[in-house]
Amino acid sequence: MSDFRKGNGAAWLDFLATRIGRYRQEQIEMLPDPEALQRWLSEQYLTPSTAPNKQDLRRAWVLREALHAAASSTLKGTLPSPAALSAIEWALRADKPLHIRPSKSGVRTVQPRARVRAHRERARAKRATNRSGSR
């Protein structure tokens, strides 16, 4: 049986639940070491290709708190802090080239135009090279 709280509807919500008693004086950190992070990721079917280290653990804590800050802000009807958005965007950058921007309804994700344009230009160049037979 797992020590982690699950069943909140999404992995990121379960991730927020790895810090218990967030608004209390005494809190319980469910991810105190890289091994605990590895167990949590595995239970969420997010097993990484290499075992997490202490730097990964620190980054996970920063991301978790940024997600909490963004969710709390959205529930309050306010904009998340630039620091929270930056931390989330940093975590997303390796996975998908998205940017997070404020919107009237909270936040929205957008794909950077420069990356889209660069990708299209590379694809066109590759097609042209393939047609001409040159490398």
Could you explain the architecture of this structure?
The structure is a single chain. This protein is mainly alpha-helical. It has one domain (about 10-110). Helices cover about 55% and strands about 10% of the residues. It is built from 5 helices and 4 strands, in the order αββαααββα. The strands form 2 sheets. A two-stranded antiparallel ribbon has the order 1-2. Helix 3 (about 55-75) packs across helix 4 (about 80-95). The chain starts with 10 loop residues before the first helix and ends with a helix. The relative contact order is 0.08. The mean pLDDT is about 85.
List its traits.
135 residues; mainly alpha; 5 helices; two-stranded antiparallel ribbon; two-stranded antiparallel sheet
